[in-house]
Backbone:
């Protein structure tokens, strides 16, 4: 495996990891927002917007080094 192949493999792995973290953030955000809706802490019409904001903030925390527990 030459240098370019190693670099490409690393890029692919980074992309896959990033996509996995984004998926985790989206699932976690959905669960959080569902709990808030169940507690009637905000309206159902606000749920989609809330999911986007929560997912974005979770992802920022993840890439900042605050990883979820296993």
Residues:
């Amino acid at each position: 495996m030459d240098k370019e192949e190693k670099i490409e493999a690393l890029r692919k792995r980074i992309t896959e990891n990033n996509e996995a973290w984004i998926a985790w953030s989206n699932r976690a955000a959905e669960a959080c927002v569902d709990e808030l809706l169940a507690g009637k802490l905000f309206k159902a019409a606000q749920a989609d917007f809330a999911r986007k904001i929560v997912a974005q903030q979770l992802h920022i925390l993840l890439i900042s080094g605050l990883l979820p527990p296993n």
